[in-house]
Amino acid sequence: MARQLKLIQLYPALVAILFVSCAAERCPSQLCDSDSRPKCDRDDLTNCKCSPFNSTVCTRYNHSVWPNYRGQEDMEDAEVEMDSFKDLMNSSCSPYLVDFLCFYYYPYCDCQSGYHTPVPCRDLCLAVKKECKRKVPDLKWPRYLACRKFPKKCCFDPRRQGA
Q: Domain total for the chain?
């Protein structure tokens, strides 16, 4: 619990650090430049819209990029899908499950600075999946969350910052 509190307290700084290190690899950087935005690529949120959201699960921040990494255009679709993970989240199978899901369904953004979290990392996905399968042996991991689809670089992993 203390570890999670530390992460919450350091969250804005973590996002800035992660983004800056990612920017060096020529990853997307601008989110909030105009109301008329080009079609957004779910793997590149550069032209996506940063908007407020209200989630029952993801409560550490209140602005996200739409469409999200799942390709969903609005908060309602994301919340319905997040709800399907309710039992898994209640199992506390991994300390990073909620972070993984929140940053996938609700990528954090700050419209004033243009910062946003990159897609979650493959290693984070693998760790969460492994921990959850250990505690919930009959777990059916969704195909759309296949860890091989997540990048190894230019991605978000809260474990890398020693939080």
A: 1
Write out the residue range of the structural domain in which residue 126 sits.
Answer: 2-161
For 36-94, the pLDDT digits (tens) are 333 445 555 566 778 888 888 899 888 998 888 999 988 899 999 999 999 999 999 99
CATH number for the domain that contains residue 73: 1.10.2000.10
Per DSSP, 96 falls in state: T
Task: Name the burial class of residue 94, with classes exposed (0-12), middle (13-18) and buried (19+) by CB atoms within 10 angstroms of its CB.
Answer: buried
**pLDDT at position 111:** 73
pLDDT grade for 113, boundaries at 50, 70 and 90? confident
Q: Tell me the CB-side half-sphere exposure of residue 141, using CA atoms within 13 A.
A: 18
* 59 φ, ψ (degrees, to nearest 5): -115, 0
Report residue 60 CA to chain centroid gap. 12
At 96 the pLDDT is 96
Alpha helices by DSSP H, the chain:
2-23, 75-83, 86-90, 97-105, 122-135
CB 40 within 8 A of CB 33: no
Percent helix, strand and coil across the chain, each to the nearest 5 = 45, 10, 45
